[in-house]
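debug: dumping io for the single-chain case to check the tokenizer round-trip. Nothing else runs in this session.
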Amino acid sequence: MTTGVGGSDATTELEAIRPMVAGVEPLADSEYRARLARARTLLADSGAEALYLNAGTNLRYFTGTVWPPSERLVGAIVTADGALHYIAPAFERDTLNGFMVTEGELHCWEEHEDPYRLVAKIVSREDRVPGSLVVDESAPFFLVDGLCRALPDTRVLAATDITRSCRARKSAAELALMQRAKDITLQIQRHTARILRPGITTAEVAEFIHAAHRAAGTGGSYFCIVLFGPDSAFPHGVAKPKSLEEGDMVLIDTGCQVEGYISDITRSYVFGDPTERQRVIWATEKAAQKAAFAAAEPGKPCGTIDAAARGVIEGAGLGPGYQLPGLPHRTGHGIGLDIHEAPYLVRGDDTPLTPGMCFSNEPMICVPGHFGVRLEDHFHITTDGAQWFTQPSADIDDPFRDVPPPPGATAS
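debug: decoded output
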């Protein structure tokens, strides 16, 4: 039996988990002010008169205000003169004020009124409509369409250049929050491996992972993928997952949030004794992940990391390209307040690697009809190269050997 896999139960492992969020602090107000200042500079450079941030992660990133997107327009407007305006339904006024972190003028609309006309009034100066308005790229089409109708003489453009320029490079405070989230999930992965037994269902495992993340002090799992045997060859799962059997490859991909910042860690190992084929593919996956990490140097294009990982996989006779058996998707993605953020570690992404950028490293190998192996850890770019948030899985026989004691743990 693979070391660290099986031999325990959910009750025992949950009782062993202690809170791991001691000392975690929300981002300082000064950080949001600095982000808005950066956005205003980029806005001025673009020549646009205003920036619209929709409810969701862009609103949270720039203002600290947490509000989910819906069919009702809720957001913030940053104007060229440096003012910050919020817009929301009138019945949400007091609620939004309670969530507001960075102060700004709040404009409200009643249910029968057109919120897009209110936006037009805010961004227009001296009765002159703006020549261009940049809009949160995550805003849904109905919202963009409404803005275009309310401002027919205004160029409505995507705010991608502004939002990505700011969000791609994480501050020291952001890195610390991400580190804590990833430390927590790695510990949960270790506890989860111990509860496995023949016949356990993926639903049982996912339920444990959610409870374990909560026991560690988070709101539970942000997401969870659990796959056994041939199902593990499907990167994002199957409609009817099988229960665990002896000899199955186990793939568990999960994460949590700490102050909105997300972890996303995958472990693959065998329940039982690995076959020679499982060993070869697992070792190739680990070598590809290692090659991707080694290629992550400041100034290099993101796409070169994908090429490095794919080169190892193709050198082992898999692929080529996205063909299976092999690697069917990109090597990695940016991460932060969103689980998938630009830039991406994929062919054609020529974005230069810059200190503060954070990425997953997961060059998965899929062998259809048999199994898949995904080893996923994250790193961030420093002036000297890449630095892991979590140490990669040790080896197929002892996948959690190098997992350190949980940092920040406190007695309950």
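debug: round-trip ok. The longest helix spans residues 172-194.
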